[in-house]
Write a structure and sequence with these properties.
four-stranded antiparallel β-sheet, 0% helix
Length: 125
Amino acid sequence: QFELVESGGGLVQPGGSLRLSCAASGGTFYSRTAGWFRQAPGKEREVVACLNYVARSTYYADSVKGRFTASRDSAQNTVFLEMKSLKPDDTAVYYCATGNLNNDYGPKCAGLRYWGKGTVVTVAS
């Protein structure tokens, strides 16, 4: 039914940039809150960015503010995460997620229902 597929991960050097994409199928991102999450080995999953549709707000984790930019392109039915000035601590599996149409999942994308399988980002020399 509704599926999300992340892409764009890879190996980058510290200070480098990377652009992650999340394409939706079986539905649209329009009228949906969308979020980016990441999970590093041995650490809990954390929200990186949240595009709250209902509130028309964008949230970024303190650790990525000023470096990461989340956006959406309704025509492409895709959400993006532009990452710059990458640090080794950014190394993680990055997931995109979304919820049901017009539902409010709060400023930090709590309780999103549909998840991609993730794309690996490794920041190392």
